[in-house]
Design a protein that fits this description.
globular; PLP-binding_barrel; 225 residues; alpha/beta; PyrdxlP_homeostasis; 8-stranded parallel sheet; binds pyridoxal-5'-phosphate; 8 helices; TIM Barrel; 8 strands
Length: 225
């Protein structure tokens, strides 16, 4: 099936209010162009270098999402270029984003990434550190938090559902409270293998790579410049 067919099939099962992000890591600009021509305007990248390579040559009316772990020394390269930094997961990173965006005189929009499965090989904030991060966000002048992102552990449907429910609960409980700089708008959860379950459980932003572009082949980065 073509990229366009894949996108149309995914859109059929997603409700109107769910944003579909095309996760374009490792994909060529030509493949991304097909997704663009199918109407997608949200693109997600997990590496800053690959993102900056694609940013210049690609369409200017897209919303870029940084979805992978963001090293503090890379923040300066993305300032002013991304719609959402979805991987805010530490006070240290928050402070660097605040510093770099303040320098540019603009505001960063972020999602807090939660490591709900407490997996040691994954990045993302552990729940017990959430309140500390929030209190630091409240002090910022150049960073806003617009919701939560999560990548859940691999597991069967029941397990997935349980993790998504937990994250939705965190999202809802924060949405009920009043914070400076925090507005719970986006709940970014669900990937190729589990986006239907995520959508059932209240996600309003899904990040899909293989389901759109086909299987990823690593070490074969094809950014055509
Ligand atoms: C790669 C990636 C995705 C997309 O994964 P697929 O299984 O290809 O849909 C979504 N979110 C994050 C954070 C990723 O790194």
């Amino acid at each position: 099936m073509s990229i366009q067919d894949n996108i149309n099939n995914i859109k059929k099962v997603l409700k109107e209010n769910i944003t579909l992000i095309a996760v374009s890591k490792t994909r060529s600009l030509d493949e991304m162009e097909e997704a663009y021509n199918s109407g997608l305007r949200d693109f997600g990248e997990n590496k800053v270098q690959e993102f900056t390579d694609k940013y210049e040559p690609f369409h200017k009316d897209v919303r870029w999402h940084i979805i992978g772990h963001l090293q503090t020394n890379k923040v300066k390269y993305i300032v002013g270029k991304v719609f959402l930094i979805q991987s805010l997961d530490s006070v240290r990173l928050l402070k660097e984003i605040e510093k770099q965006y303040a320098k540019a005189g603009i505001t960063a929009n972020t999602l807090i990434e939660i490591n709900i499965g407490r997996e040691e090989n994954k990045t993302g904030l552990l729940l017990e550190n959430l309140e500390e991060l929030i209190s630091e966000v409240e002090k910022c002048n150049n960073v806003k938090v617009s919701g939560i992102m999560t990548v859940i552990p691999i597991g069967n449907e029941d397990k997935c559902r349980e993790y998504f429910k937990q994250v939705k609960n965190v999202f809802d409980s924060l949405a009920k409270r009043q914070f400076n700089n925090i507005n719970m708008q986006y709940l970014s959860m669900g990937m190729t293998g589990d986006f239907k379950i995520a959508a059932d459980e209240g996600s309003n932003m899904v990040r899909i790579g293989e389901g759109i572009f086909g299987k990823r082949i690593y070490n074969n980065q094809k950014v055509n410049k």
